[in-house]
Amino acid sequence: MKVATFNINGIKARMPRLVEWLDETQPDVVCLQELKSSDETMPTKEIEAAGYGFLYHGQKGFNGVAILAKGTDPVEVQRGLAGEAEDEQSRYLEADVFGVRVGAIYLPNGNPHPGPKFDYKLRWMARLRERAKALLAREIPAILAGDYNVIPHDDDVWDVRGMADDALMQPESRDAWFRMLGDGWTDAIRSRHPAGHVWTFWDYQAGGWQRDHGFRIDHLLLSPAMADRLIDAQVDKAYRGREKASDHAPTWASFA
C-alpha cells in the first residue's frame, strides 16, 4: 500500500498536474491540502474519473483538506479537531481506508511570529496531539499525513539562518512536533533519510526551485503498527519542476 500527502496549492488550478501524478504513480491513498475550494465547488468529477473516491473538507479561497482512495470511498470518521469550537478553518479530516485510519492535516503556518497567528498554530498543534494520543491509545494502524508547516531539524532546510525567525522553525513549533514523536509516532521520511537534506517545498520566489533552495514541511507520521510495515518513504521531487506545478512535491510512504 502506498500513502501520499500533497499540498496541491489550489485543486482547480493544479487539476491537470494532480490527475497526471495520480495516473503516473498510482498511490492507494492521498491526503491533499490547501484545496482553496468550497465543498459546493469542489471538482469531484475529475477526481472520480481518475479512479479515486473523494472525501473533502473544503473552504472557499483558503485551506481545505481531502482524502482520496483508489477504487473505493474513504469512510469519514471526523472533520476538524476538538477543543476550540469557534475554529472554522478546514484543516483536519480523518477517515478509514483499506483498514487504516488516515488523518489529513494542514497545520497553520503561524507567521508572522510572534503574534495571534503563531498562538493559534501552537493551540492547533496541542489539539492535534490530543487527537493523535487518542488514536495511539486505540492501537489501530494509523497515519497522520499532511503539510505540518514545521521544519523539524536544521538539516531539513537549505538555509538555517535565513529561516531562523520563521514560525516554521521556532523552538515552540519544534517542541510540539517532538512531543508527538515522543508519544510514539514515527516520521516516515526521516526514518529513511536520517541525514536530512530532503526537501518537499520550494518557494516560487527567488528561484527557489531552480537553485534547489527548499525545506521539508510535508510529513507522514506513522503509528507503531504502520511503522512496523514501512518499506520506503520518498519525495516525488520531479513533479515540482513541471509546468504550473504546486510549490510542494508529493511525499509518500509504502507499506507491506
TrEMBL record:
Annotated active site: Y106, D147 (proton donor/acceptor), H248 (proton acceptor)
Cofactor stoichiometry and binding remark: Probably binds two magnesium or manganese ions per subunit.
Domain Endonuclease/exonuclease/phosphatase stretches: 4-248
Superkingdom, natural source: Bacteria
Residues annotated as site: Transition state stabilizer: N149
Binding site for Mg(2+): N7, E34, D147, N149, D247, H248
UniProt site (Interaction with DNA substrate): H248
Cofactor: Mg(2+); Mn(2+)
Site for Important for catalytic activity, residues: D218
Gene Ontology BP, a term: DNA repair
Gene3D superfamilies reported in the protein's UniProt record: Endonuclease/exonuclease/phosphatase
Keywords of this entry: Hydrolase, Magnesium, Manganese, Metal-binding
Gene Ontology molecular function terms on file: DNA binding; double-stranded DNA 3'-5' DNA exonuclease activity; endonuclease activity; metal ion binding
Family statement: Belongs to the DNA repair enzymes AP/ExoA family.
Protein name: Exodeoxyribonuclease III
Species: Sphingopyxis terrae subsp. ummariensis
